Amino acid sequence: MSNDIGKSIALIIAPYHTGIHNHRVGAGPHRILAKGLLDRLHNLGYTFTFKEIDPVDDFEGEIGRSFEVIRRIASYVSEAVKHGSFPILLAGNCNAEIGVAAAMSGIQDFEVVWFDAHSNMDSPDEATSGYFDGMGVSMLMGESWKALMATVTGHRLVSLDRAIFCGVRDLSDGQRTKLEKSSARVVYGGSASQVDFASGLGVLFDRTAKSSCLVHVDLDCLDTSIGLANEYAAPGGLGADELLDCLNVISAKRKPIALMVASFSPDLEGGDQIADVAVDAIVHLMSVIKEKS
């Protein structure tokens, strides 16, 4: 792996919801691009490559299509890192993080900082809704879909003691109990009281001595006062400035090695505002990385 990661960007686009192109959250990546992301990254002085995942219609069903998207992401991110580029993935579904983590499996003990309103720890035996994209973390930690996970090149289990959740708040009683009993570190969101997300994140970083992290931003981490990031948005999330403050803490405490932004249905209320926040967050993190490189 090149030591020059961060001097160039590999922008990877996965505009799919359960393998369906531009459907629901699958339309999010292109809305973010339409907000001038490429020009703003170019103005920071980065060189970059651009790759969009081709359609996966020939694969069987929701599960088959979704895993093919994940496999292709793993391949493209791995190639980007091999060439010393910083991967930025704009995806529909948050389970695309599986592909990013697989591509980084050669790095020992990286952490995953996961901004999200939800824990995504459901297994198929627990998810009565059948919502596949609520299972991404359970897949990463080896609890579910094991045979298909083995088809993702580079996949290694990511133990929950390497995970930090920020902004989690929309949980059933069972989901909350499962998260609380796990080894994951959590800065909970919620509207019952004011939360200092950045300070809480800093405290959790100080509990371990890891050096690098993947940054995962589900846009429903944002408070609904900004807009509805998707159909599962909930009040009590991060404000735009609070997200930037958290990214500053991450950059001060760890070396970011990849960024993923996902779970954005742009046609809901406040879609343009959500997209603006997403672009600002991406550009802010890459600006800080540029300053440190």
Tell me about this structure:
The two termini are 16 Å apart. The protein has helices at 28-33, 37-43, 61-82, 97-103, 136-140, 146-149, 173-181, 197-205, 240-253, 271-292; strands spanning 8-14, 16-17, 20-21, 47-52, 85-91, 111-115, 163-168, 185-188, 212-218, 255-262. The radius of gyration is 17 Å and the shape is globular. The model has no long low-confidence stretch (mean pLDDT 96). The chain has a single domain (8-292), classed as Arginase, Chain A (3-Layer(aba) Sandwich), CATH 3.40.800.10. Strand 9, helix 9 and strand 10 form a beta-alpha-beta unit. With 293 residues, it is of the alpha/beta class. It has an 8-stranded parallel beta sheet with strand order 4-1-5-10-9-6-7-8, with helices on both faces. Pfam families: Arginase. Belongs to the arginase family. It comes from Imshaugia aleurites. InterPro entries: Ureohydrolase, Ureohydrolase_dom_sf.
Approximate shape: globular
SS-based class: alpha/beta
Radius of gyration: 17 Å
Arrangement of strands in the largest sheet: 4-1-5-10-9-6-7-8
- CATH level 1 class label: Alpha Beta
CATH fold field value: Arginase, Chain A
Helical stretch tally? 10
Percent of residues in β-strands: 15-25%
Instruction: Provide the succession of SSEs.
Output: EEEHHEHEHEHHEHEHEHEH
Low-confidence stretches: none
The helical percent reads 25-40%
- How many separate structural domains? 1
Sheet with the most strands? 8 strands, parallel
* Number of beta-strand segments: 10
GO cellular component, one term: nucleus
Family: Belongs to the arginase family.
Protein name: Arginase
Pfam families: Arginase (PF00491)
